[in-house]
Specification:
285 residues; 13 strands
Length: 285
């Protein structure tokens, strides 16, 4: 009888997966770095989500993010092989928003012939990416081979939806992730903008008049897409996160995974961000 393939799942810290889920599913997370002026911190090692938001509150300047080096991914791939993995599936942040996918691609080429690496561009961020990672990890744990684990992740890319209510557009504007005109419009009219990740990019989705209406809008988007799977709620220390959870519950939505937005996504989304992510078409297998 042939041995069951052992596939290791690698991702980056843009996925916002809580540490307990990373450990439970044996996922390897390659961290991005966060810069506050001249100070450079490794996401997840030097900076927890709570520590990040505390640092943001005390900083006069917006932080910046930097993708992992190809060497960091190469080390992760070789470590997986050294631990007995037959192959690696690496699920990254959207390639349209970060150089992380390119770094992983360079690393995969560097280990070609030594380690079988399959790359998946999640076209997502935060727990949209994270839930794809978890699906791949579950498939790997069930004994699926490299191609099957890759196919599981790939199938979810087009089905993943991400919506977020922002408390400010300053971070996205200053980080160059959204047009200045949209930021100006939002600030002038005191509108609470809803953004979505579509085609791997951040796009304006709608404008809500109040914070509470923006949260209700997120809950309604989930309900309108039913049946959904892999529902997650993420937030940047939002004090009203329980309001959104109550709204989702009132719609009869499945219980979500709740996670803090970490430094990578929080740098661009800003404090108070609240988001929902889910896959369409029911259970993801």
């Amino acid at each position: 009888m042939a041995a069951v393939a052992r596939i290791s799942v690698v991702t980056d810290s843009g996925c916002d997966l809580p540490a307990e889920l990373v450990a439970e599913h044996a996922v390897t997370v390659v961290p991005l770095t966060i810069r506050f002026g001249a100070e450079e911190l490794v996401d997840g090692r030097d900076l927890t989500p709570a520590g990040f938001w505390e640092k943001v509150a005390g900083s006069a300047q917006l932080p910046e993010t930097a993708a992992p080096s190809p060497g960091a991914f190469e080390a992760a791939f070789r470590a997986a092989s050294g631990a007995g993995a037959d192959g690696v599936v690496c699920v990254t942040l959207s390639s349209s928003l970060s150089a992380t996918h390119q770094a992983a691609s360079v690393a995969a080429q560097a280990v070609d012939g030594d380690v079988s690496v399959s790359l998946v561009d999640s076209r997502a961020v935060s727990m949209g990416q994270g839930m794809i990672v978890l699906a791949a990890a579950r498939a790997a744990a069930s004994g699926a081979g490299l191609d099957e684990v890759t196919a599981t992740a790939d199938a979810l890319v087009a089905r993943t939806r991400i919506y977020a209510a922002l408390d400010t557009l300053d971070n996205l504007r200053k980080g160059g992730r959204i047009g200045a005109a949209q930021a100006l419009l939002g600030s002038l009219l005191s509108i609470k903008p809803i953004i979505q990740v579509a085609g791997g990019r951040v796009e304006p989705e709608s404008k809500q008049r109040t914070r509470r209406r923006s949260l209700q809008y997120l809950a309604d988007k989930v309900a309108q897409a039913a049946p959904v799977a892999d529902l997650a709620v993420v937030h940047g220390q939002a004090p009203d996160i329980d309001d959104l959870l109550g709204m989702l519950g009132a719609h009869g939505c499945p219980a979500p995974v709740v996670a803090q937005v970490g430094a990578v996504i929080g740098t661009h989304a800003g404090p108070g961000v609240v988001g929902v992510t889910f896959t369409t078409g029911g259970a993801a297998g």
